[in-house]
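Why should sequence recovery work at all? Because a backbone constrains its sequence more than one might expect. Tight turns favour small or flexible residues, buried strands favour hydrophobic ones, and helices have their own preferences. The token representation captures these environments compactly. In the example below, the structure is given first.
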């Protein structure tokens, strides 16, 4: 039933909300039956500006680390074993020939010998079989024959 006698509604006017009561005030208001809100105002808001130095430090610490590289000793062992293998003309095996024989790219062999390659277990396994030397495991075993001669 709307008419001229109704209270006009002003646009932009905020209605009065119940106050937040704490402790004994809350108990007294509940006893009298008054409308009281118990939620806290501003919960979840932080006081003051954000700690940018702490956030920046976390960003620096959580940066991904570059992957480990194959050691120089592995590269030297591959190069030495490759040079030891001779073809029919008496020339040593090239990096391209080795890459072709193990189904890899020549750049993979170049990076491996230079110590810039990321360890690829499949490639290292194929090279171990082709060259007949150990390329994985303890550092003192790298370059030793894959299958030592039996006594």
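From this structural description, the recovered sequence reads:
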């Amino acid at each position: 039933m709307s008419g001229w006698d109704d209270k006009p509604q002003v646009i932009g006017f905020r209605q009065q909300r119940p106050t937040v009561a704490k402790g004994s005030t809350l108990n007294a208001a509940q006893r009298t039956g008054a409308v009281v809100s118990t939620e806290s105002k501003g919960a979840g808001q932080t006081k003051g500006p954000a700690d940018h130095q702490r956030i920046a430090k976390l960003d620096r610490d959580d940066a991904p680390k570059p992957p480990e590289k194959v050691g120089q000793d592995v590269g030297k062992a591959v190069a030495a074993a490759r040079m030891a293998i001779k073809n029919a003309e008496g020339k040593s095996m090239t990096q391209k020939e080795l890459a072709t024989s193990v189904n890899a790219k020549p750049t993979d062999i170049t990076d491996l010998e230079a110590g810039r390659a990321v360890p690829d277990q499949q490639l290292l396994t194929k090279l171990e079989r082709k060259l007949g030397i150990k390329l994985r495991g303890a550092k003192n075993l790298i370059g030793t024959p894959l299958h030592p001669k039996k006594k």
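A few observations help interpret the result. The chain has a mean pLDDT of 80.
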